[in-house]
Design brief:
There is one protein chain. This protein is α/β, with parallel strands linked by helices. It has 3 domains: 111 residues, 2-Layer Sandwich (Nucleotidyltransferase, domain 5), CATH 3.30.420; 90 residues; 86 residues, no CATH class. The protein is 51% helix and 15% strand. The protein contains 12 helices and 8 strands. The chain has a 6-stranded mixed beta sheet with strand order 3-2-1-4-5-6. It has a two-stranded antiparallel ribbon with strand order 7-8. A hairpin with a 4-residue loop joins strand 2 and strand 3. Helix 9 packs antiparallel against helix 11.
Length: 329
């Protein structure tokens, strides 16, 4: 009878705990190696032909490690870390070795939720989006810090000159003690703006070369950033059985609470990509508030009808008497 092995990997920055289980649940091997694809493959080399699954949790290094192991012909599978955590938390003693053993058991039983790993191209585009968002956030944080520091000394920004830097410098006139503190922050803001502009330029270049992004941008309210975020997050549309599943994947479907005779729906689950939800919200807001009569009016009318239904449902949810009670007969 051919032997079959199931592998669990508990991945950390420097080391990865490995547990190999047999089909009967017994432990075949336990070891710890460096978090390098070659080291992991070397630890499984003599069992490689009989390995059925290699399970690892989603995390910062999971995309890279999954791709490298797959290229080395190991049947790697990423599982939802939230589901894995619910199982791993049942152990009395949490160690890397115990986590790997439990992940190996998940691989053996098939009790896991597989997570599709995005392509390298999608990961690179998402990295660009996150880098741009970080640069914009750095500028915003510096501006808030400058405003807060000035306010603590009773200094307010004037309406003139028009540029932000000009207004700051005008406030600092005659403030010999504050100038050496605020001006370096102003330089940080300037550099953050410069880098954000460079990242935005690169994003626009990539979007122009993408047919999918250009098609999405024909939708009123959808711009460069929203289109790029949607394409990078969805990556392979074929992995969704129904288009309606995309909403659930992004965390935009309502939660449901059912217990005994009580059965009602809640607000959106938010169990999905936060950046995508943010961009879709901005696109919807632009559609509702900025699209004029003419192009996109039919879509806007549909969106307004959805908004009205949502507002009515929220008013009903605020009334405890409106909770739907199921009858059993």
């Amino acid at each position: 009878m051919e032997k079959r092995y199931y592998v669990g990997l508990d991945v950390s920055k420097d080391a990865t705990a490995i547990c190999v289980r047999r089909a009967d649940g017994g432990v075949q091997r336990v070891c710890e190696v460096a978090t390098e694809p070659d080291a992991i493959c070397a630890a499984l080399d003599d069992l490689k032909c009989n390995v059925v699954r290699v399970v690892l949790e989603t995390g910062r290094m999971s995309n890279w490690l999954h791709g490298e192991l797959t290229r080395r012909r190991l049947p790697a599978i990423c599982v939802d870390a939230r589901q894995a955590h619910a199982v791993l938390s049942q152990m009395h003693n949490k160690t890397d070795a115990n986590d790997a053993a439990m992940l190996a058991d998940l691989a053996r039983t098939g009790f896991y939720r597989k997570v599709e790993v995005k392509s390298r191209h999608a990961q690179e585009r998402r990295a660009l989006l996150l880098a741009r968002d970080a640069a914009i956030g750095a500028r915003r944080n510096v501006e808030n810090t400058i405003r807060g520091l000035l306010a603590s000394f009773g200094l307010r920004l004037p309406t003139q000159p028009r540029t932000y830097e000009g207004r700051i410098r005008s406030v600092l006139e005659g403030q010999a003690a504050l100038a050496p503190i605020i001006l370096p922050l102003l330089a940080v803001r300037t550099e953050a703006l410069r880098q954000a502009a460079a990242l935005t330029k690169e994003l626009v270049r990539q979007v122009k070369a993408s047919d999918a992004c250009r098609r999405l941008m024909t939708v009123p309210g959808v711009g460069t950033v929203t289109a790029a975020t949607f394409v990078a997050t969805i990556d392979a549309p074929g992995r969704f059985a129904k288009s309606r599943s995309v909403g659930a994947y992004a965390g935009l479907t309502s939660r449901r609470h059912q217990s005994g005779a009580i059965d009602y729906g809640g607000r959106i689950s938010k169990r999905g990509d936060r950046l995508l939800r943010t961009m879709l919200y901005e696109a919807a807001n632009a559609l509702l508030c900025r699209v004029k009569l003419g192009k996109g009016q039919a879509l806007k009318n549909w969106a307004m009808a959805v908004k009205q239904r949502t507002m009515q449902r929220d008013k009903q949810d605020e009334n405890p008497a409106s909770i739907k009670v199921r009858t059993r007969g």
